[in-house]
């Protein structure tokens, strides 16, 4: 009998749990316990809509306890405070949990404190509280210079592009004046998405009067300005910056000397120094984008290889292949879909069309409101549309 503990229940933890339950359906002697500090799942890709008043937070969340009850998985709503890989124990605010196999899926810790003034004067959309705080700030904002973007050490820049475009659309509707300046540390516009998507975003920003400054770092944020690493000062009445990401303190013992506190794994999603520990989602120490998409792909690999350790599946170990995939809502009903391999050149997709925002919304609705993904374990990663619905192909056009 193996005691399996999954720490965290976002995209990484939830999909690992559902997949494991399926792999272990004929081996009831193995127990699965999920522990997460938030009793609800939050569909984070819809948070931009919450900030701009188009979505209600309650429509993008669901209770985890009944979901896990239906799956026969024990769920504990508690914060993990530490992990002892030698004693194989997870410490939580509700007591210790002993494990034989552990999956860490705690996501990223937002670290605004790394940039003076950011927590005080900046806004973001990274969690429900922040999205609502920004919503309230937008109601007060009557126009004037705005700075939008993401700080150094952020590994999910996509939401900031959506925020900049949504802000521009809102200001145009309300006849408010900018300007909007976009700041980010990437070597070129949206570099991980590839040159075609990046050049498209350069043109889109130019058409909408958004100026990109990059690559830049953020030194500090003040009430009326953003100070860049080279001491350039950008006037700002509304500052929306995604804060730096770090690994959670609770996983410190597994992160070793990783400078940002991430847990390093091999491609089987097994922690490098701890073979009984798997990792899925933002907690993993891979370079490049940290997404719901990558978290779910990693969760499937982790669940399969863990089940294989227990003799529940046969065949060779599976390996994760890093790729990004997302739909940027461009406003006005238009969307940009990008899917791209990050370790090789195998997948290069970028298309522009009006079906993408609808597909994105449909996926969000299905994820939150139906059992398709969260109970049946059907893969939720990577939107696919038939060629005739996918719109303009930016790769073949370039
Ligand atoms: C505005 C926005 C838009 C986005 N859009 C997209 C998109 O379009 N496509 C895409 O693929 N990705 C998108 N992302 C990124 C995506 O949401 C994240 O990459 C994803 O949520 C990471 O999944 P995760 O499971 O690693 O972590 P999370 O989803 O952050 O889950 C972490 C889990 O760990 C729990 N936890 C944290 N700390 C503790 C603790 N100490 N003890 C116990 N439990 C703890 C939490 O309660 C939660 O259950 C977006 C993100 C944002 C903010």
Automatic annotation (TrEMBL):
Transmembrane segments annotated in the record for this chain: none
Name the record gives this protein: Sulfide-quinone oxidoreductase
Record InterPro entries: FAD/NAD-bd_sf (IPR036188), FAD/NAD-binding_dom (IPR023753), SQRD (IPR052541)
MF terms (GO), sorted A to Z: oxidoreductase activity
Source species, domain of life: Bacteria
Pfam family, any one: Pyr_redox_2
Provenance organism: Candidatus Hydrogenisulfobacillus filiaventi
FAD/NAD(P)-binding domain mapped to chain residues: 3-299
